Amino acid sequence: MELNGRPVSTGELAGLALYGYGHFTTMLVTDLRVRGLDLHMDRLSRDCRTLFGVELDIPRVRELARRSARAHLSPSVVRVTVFDPHMDLGHPSARQLPQILVSTRPAPTDASPPPVRLGTRRFTRDTPQIKSTGLFGAIRQRRAAQLDGYDDALFMGVDGRVSEGPTWNIGFLDGGGLVWPQAPCLPGVTTALVSRAAENLGIPVTTRPIASAASTRTAGAFITNATTGVRQVAAIDGVHLPQAALVRKFAAAYAELPGDPL
């Protein structure tokens, strides 16, 4: 783990650990290439402007991520976190100087993880369009779902509409097409890439409200994030879903994307 290209001290991480004010993106790096690299960088730029009111040095971000990836076996998961180690809790509106923290871990070894069993939870993340470091609420819901016997939590709003999961987006199949939920959620990089793949396959892609009560009456569902790609949903609230061949086609199309040079 490095801050601006050098080893980070525990003191420099104190603000991030205690306040959790920052944002990040997580990338799967294979042979120094990243699927949807431009989308990851756009996310970092957009969120930095929103949280800190300044422009992020994207060439520097790429340099630091590349350096970290080179030091680890390929493939690896590289997380870029942007935060201000010197932020004043009492005066967060003061001028801030966001810094670049890069951490790396081994990529998952299971290329085809088993279908996931989801349990719906009434929850909406704070500022869901930002990939923020404040994960308390989301992880709390994941833990509660697992204690109830599920693999993970599927969030729905107070209006009963499906939105997202703690660290992923969800897609549904309906009449041969791909449907993303219309609800407050993070615009996922993998979601955008799967949409492109679907369009290249001639499959209609739409976004519309999906009631949690109707989420089990579908031709199939899957979750997406940069680390695992496309993963089938086995069941929602104990109701088993079809394991659609179309989801496997999406997964294969996504896996074949070459990625962009980091």
From TrEMBL:
GO terms for biological process: 4-aminobenzoate biosynthetic process. SUPFAM superfamilies: D-aminoacid aminotransferase-like PLP-dependent enzymes. Belongs to the class-IV pyridoxal-phosphate-dependent aminotransferase family. InterPro entries: Aminotrans_IV, Aminotransferase-like, BCAT-like_C, BCAT-like_N, Class-IV_PLP-Dep_Aminotrnsfr. Keywords: Aminotransferase, Transferase. GO terms for cellular component: cytosol. It comes from the Bacteria. NCBIfam families: PRK09266.1 (NF006734). The lineage of its organism: Bacteria, Bacillati, Actinomycetota, Actinomycetes, Streptosporangiales. Pfam families: Aminotran_4. This is Aminotransferase class IV. GO terms for molecular function: 4-amino-4-deoxychorismate lyase activity; transaminase activity. Coiled coil: none annotated.
